[in-house]
Specification:
Strands 1, 2, 3, 5, 13, 14 and 15 form a 7-stranded mixed β-sheet that branches. The radius of gyration is 23 Å and the shape is globular. The chain folds into 2 domains: 240 residues, Nucleotidyltransferase, domain 5 (2-Layer Sandwich); 186 residues, 2-Layer Sandwich (Nucleotidyltransferase, domain 5). The model has no long low-confidence stretch (mean pLDDT 95). 41% of the residues lie in helices and 19% in strands. It is an alpha/beta fold. Helix 1 packs across helix 6, helix 2 packs across helix 3 and helix 12 crosses helix 13.
């Protein structure tokens, strides 16, 4: 039997999973590490923590599985995107990594827009300058830590630093590189124009591969530490969302997935490059060679429910304890007892500003229509509907761009909630499915490793073999519900337009 390893390098932990060639989990292990916030709005992590977590978890799954080293044919890495790793001439880390959620680079984004032009930046990188992306972080280090910038000889993304540790190779791949704002996304190569205008030396950047391509093999000293073979290939891998797409089979036109975690993501595959000139959604190269994905992101999806529960839902926890059940069993029952529209109560989930569709850091959450008749049942249903309206906004933009979705997969924490899945199916107007595996990104990059190792001839073929839908959890849209939700969704959209200027005024008070 052939085996494959998928590593999912996340913000809170690294999870490593060993699969057989049919996609079945044989062994898994994870290791947590801290996030540092040295100043307000800053977010950093130590690349050495990622290194240690990867090596430790690889060794554990190899040992626990009992698989022979030579039978582990390939390894892929999925990673949190946008993080800046800077190495010196000896390959040592210069400073902690500035990661995806760091917000210190507003002035550097202005600098990028001034030097390149907003329209040209969108044409090349498919996105306007954003604080979370890597290019502005590079400029920040140059502007504020010139001594560190002068020592820098290699710039890598988080997962690509782990690749360097495993293989000794400086490499990246198109999906993760798309989030640096240095890649020409339509051409799938570094943009000489942007690098020249930002005065960034191209030699600092790693070689760009397609996601299933082999980038190297395991170093002898790493093989000794982990139990892997020096013949185990390491493929390009993918950024976290691109990896999740492969792990849910979203590798062909007409397919998409929705993730409800802290934030929410609606991600669609497309074989034709499509860029929103308004920058409301992100277009990146995807993990399938020659294809792209378009992705809308909402800031406070699952976080809205977590916020509600933490601040106004204490009674749920007490009741759940008394009844010996989960909190969401009670929440779902109450939502089911409340009509669509939550008795004319609408929630705008803009707790921390919004990315898609508004790209507005000033907007904030709203309960609209609140009256003395409303109970906690109405409020929690309004929150759940508001999350789904926000995700539907993302899907609607994809439709505007000519990307039609007929098959939606659900993953993340929200995928476990049948009521939320049905709500999405009704609002989206298409089937919503889940897969039996819950490993998502780890499975996705293991599939890419299977292609790179020659077990499968394409990503699509590998997905058909290694991914299995869960027919018991399929949700089909209910026409009368879709019609009713459409009425409230229109009002929901009108509210942002009515409040946009007031949000700005509030921020300036």
């Amino acid at each position: 039997m052939n085996y494959l390893i998928g590593i999912d390098l996340g913000t809170s932990s690294t999870k490593t999973v060993l699969f057989d060639e049919n996609g079945e989990v044989i062994a898994s292990a994870s290791k947590d590490y801290p996030l540092y916030t040295p100043n307000n709005g800053w977010a950093e992590q130590k690349p050495e923590d990622w290194r240690d977590a990867a090596l430790e978890t690889i060794a554990k799954v190899v040992k626990d599985s009992g698989a022979a080293a030579d039978d582990i044919k390939g390894l892929g890495i999925s990673g949190q995107m946008h993080g800046l790793v800077m190495l010196d001439e000896a390959g040592e880390v210069i400073r902690p990594s500035i990661i995806w959620c760091d917000q210190r680079t507003e002035k550097e984004c202005e600098e990028m827009t001034e030097k390149i032009g907003r329209e040209r930046l969108v044409e090349i990188t498919a996105n306007p300058a954003m604080t979370g992306f890597t290019a502005s972080k590079i400029l920040w280090v140059r502007n504020h830590e010139p001594e560190n910038y002068a020592k820098c000889r290699h710039i890598l993304l988080p997962k690509d630093y782990v690749r360097y540790i495993l293989t000794g190779e400086f490499a990246t791949e198109v999906s993760d590189a798309s989030g640096m704002q240095l890649l020409d996304v339509p051409k799938r190569q570094w943009s000489d124009e942007i690098l020249e205008k930002l005065d960034i030396d191209k030699n600092l950047l790693a070689k760009v591969y397609e996601s299933p391509e082999v980038t190297g093999t395991i170093l002898p000293e790493i093989a000794e530490k982990t139990g892997l073979s020096t013949s185990t290939v390491v493929v390009g891998g993918a950024g976290d969302n691109a990896a999740a797409a492969v792990g849910t089979g979203v590798v062909e036109d007409g397919k998409a997935f929705t993730t409800i975690g802290t934030s929410g993501v609606v991600y669609a595959h497309t074989s034709k490059i499509s860029i929103d000139p308004q920058g409301r959604v992100h277009t990146f190269c995807c993990a399938v060679p020659g294809a792209w994905h378009v992705m809308g992101v909402t800031q406070a999806a699952g976080y809205s429910l977590a916020w509600y529960q933490a601040n106004m839902g204490a009674s749920y926890e007490a009741e759940a304890k008394e009844k010996g059940c989960g909190v969401f069993e009670i929440i779902n029952k109450e939502v089911e007892e409340t009509p669509i529209g939550a008795n004319k109560l609408i929630y705008l989930p803009y707790l921390n500003g919004e990315r898609t569709p508004h790209l507005d850091a000033n907007c904030r959450g709203v309960f609209f229509g609140l009256s003395s008749m409303h109970t906690r049942k109405d409020i929690v249903r309004a929150v759940m509907e508001g999350i789904s309206y926000s995700l539907t906004d993302c899907k609607d933009i994809l439709s505007e761009m000519g990307i039609n979705v007929s098959d939606m997969m659900a993953c993340g924490g929200g995928a476990k909630n049948a009521l939320q899945r049905q709500m999405m199916a009704d609002m989206y107007g298409c089937d919503v499915n889940t897969v039996t595996a819950t490993e998502g990104p780890a499975l996705g990059v293991a599939i890419l490793a299977g292609v790179g190792a020659g077990i499968y001839d394409s990503v699509e073929t590998a997905c058909r073999k290694m991914i299995h839908k869960d027919p018991a959890k399929e949700c089909k849209p209910i026409a009368e519900n879709t019609k009713e939700y459409d009425k409230y969704h229109q009002l929901y959209k009108n509210l942002y337009a009515a409040l946009k200027d007031q949000y700005k005024t509030l921020a300036e008070l």
